[in-house]
UniProtKB/TrEMBL annotation:
Gene that this polypeptide is encoded by: PEX16
Classification via InterPro entries: Pex16
Name of protein: Peroxisomal membrane protein PEX16
PANTHER family in the record: PEROXISOMAL MEMBRANE PROTEIN PEX16
Pfam families tied to this protein: Pex16 (PF08610)
Family, as annotated: Belongs to the peroxin-16 family.
Keyword terms of this UniProt record: Peroxisome, Peroxisome biogenesis
Transmembrane segments: none
Lineage: Eukaryota, Metazoa, Ecdysozoa, Arthropoda, Chelicerata
Location within or outside the cell: Peroxisome membrane
Keyword Cytoplasm attributed: no
Length: 452
């Protein structure tokens, strides 16, 4: 009976000892490990901050190592190569995030973007970087059916997030590069200049001495301080594009807003633009802002075109599941090609895009309503990143020449014959082309997707 009564005491005693061990050894060890990790992370952040170009070289070297491994023949070389390639891309994404925080660019980069939208873009970018590695791993572990199951899950997740961004958050055109890479050289030079000349500017401000022309030439202005507009061969500088309300008045008969001559600014500060033109100019400059361009809101026609582009991978995979194959049947191939062509036609309708869109002052000076039957409103014009995305989609139509089944029946023999001709008759091309001939069938099955 005494032993039975002592059992609870032994349990309490053992739990007490475990708590003492945790308090005495485990918790201090964990806190010390976290402290060491924070110190190493801070050292790495400072290294990236002061050596962004060296970090870029390391990332590029890691990527080229993955490319060299892809041409070798040892076991699992393809999976290792894709792992290194994914790590290189993720490292670039992580280092860009550190540099934005170190250079104070986080608020600028996300001034018109909610944190939720940024998180969705980050998820999509992460999926793009690791998708091929996940697919190859699925093939290695679960075979062909596991590969298509993983691909279907990934594409459904991507389509769901894109639809949410399109309809709920009104993010407009979907881009392949969800997060714009940081221009490290430019931002590093700006950081060095600000760090170097900020004490001089502070001293000049404290002493209230007039700033010399040399200082004005050295200081780098922010994007919102000065706007440079190309006008044929001349460059006009506008430091103040928004006139004071006291300089304007509205005509009673027409309601048109014009300037008050008596309160006009000095000649050297005049822009010689009407208030309507100034407003249009501000919208156009914000539309093509270097770091945070304004998103073009899609009308019904463009919205349908973008919807077809987002749903195309899912429709292609669904069609392949219905007919019993994706790579061997023409039906999924033709459905995907047709959706791409229709989507681009809807996005690039003649009613909303004109060859005169590159004429800056033609846009500014056009009427507020219509110009020769074509809507020239700034809101209907793609910004620079959206124009690049449209051009990329047009070029991606050429990839259908390298996708099955068209590649297997028409392109394969002609392409291999052309590469062999270069390898046999052009000096030094043999060392480059023969490894390409060996790995081309595998690359065609892995990279030349119809759904991606």
């Amino acid at each position: 009976m005494g032993n039975i009564q002592s059992l609870p005491d032994d349990g309490q005693w053992s739990s007490k000892i475990s708590m003492e061990v945790m308090e005495k050894y485990l918790r201090p060890t964990t806190e010390y490990s976290l402290k060491i990790l924070r110190q190493y992370f801070e050292r790495y952040r400072l290294f990236v901050k002061h050596n962004p170009l060296l970090v870029s070289e390391i990332e590029s070297a890691l990527y080229w190592i993955s490319y060299l491994l892809a041409t070798t023949r040892f076991h699992n070389s393809r999976i290792i190569s894709e792992l290194l390639s994914s790590c290189s891309s993720l490292l670039t994404l992580f280092d860009d995030s550190l540099l934005r925080r170190s250079y104070g660019l986080s608020s600028t980069n996300q001034q018109n973007t909610k944190s939720t939208i940024y998180a969705f873009h980050l998820i999509l970018q992460f999926i793009e970087y690791v998708q091929v590695f996940v697919e190859l791993t699925a093939v290695q572990l679960y075979g062909r059916y596991g590969k298509w199951l993983v691909i279907s899950i990934i594409e459904i997740i991507k389509a769901s997030i894109r639809l949410l961004l399109l309809f709920y958050y009104q993010q407009g055109l979907t881009r392949r590069q969800y997060l714009t890479p940081l221009n490290r050289l430019h931002e590093f030079e700006r950081f060095q200049m600000k760090h170097k000349f900020q004490p001089q500017q502070q001293q000049q401000t404290d002493s209230s001495s007039p700033r010399s022309s040399v200082d004005e030439a050295i200081v780098i202005p922010d994007d919102d301080e000065e706007v440079i507009i190309p006008d044929d061969d001349n460059i006009v500088h506008h430091n103040n594009l928004e006139p004071d309300e006291t300089q304007l008045f509205r005509l009673k008969s027409s309601g048109r807003i014009i300037r008050n001559i008596g309160q006009a600014p000095p000649k050297e500060k005049r822009t010689w633009l009407t208030p309507q033109q100034q407003q249009r100019l501000r919208r156009l400059l914000q539309k093509n802002h270097r770091s945070s361009p304004t998103v073009t809101q899609l009308n019904q026609r463009r919205l349908i075109g973008e919807l077809l582009h987002i749903l195309r991978p899912v429709i292609h995979l669904t069609t392949g599941a219905i007919v019993g194959g994706v790579e061997d049947h023409w039906t999924p191939y033709m459905v995907s090609l047709g959706l791409d062509v229709i989507s681009l036609r809807l996005l690039q309708g003649s009613n909303f895009y004109s060859s005169n869109d590159t004429n800056l002052f033609g846009l500014i000076n056009c009427n507020d309503d219509k110009d020769n039957g074509v809507d020239m409103d700034v809101d209907h014009i793609w910004n620079w990143s959206e124009r690049l995305e449209i051009q990329r989609r047009y070029l991606s139509l050429l990839m259908y020449l390298l996708r099955s089944p068209f590649y297997d029946q028409y392109t394969k023999q002609r392409l291999l014959r052309l590469i062999s001709l270069f390898a046999n008759y052009i000096p030094l091309f043999g060392r480059l082309c023969r490894p390409l001939i060996r790995v081309l069938p595998e690359w065609q099955q892995i990279y030349f997707y119809v759904w991606n």
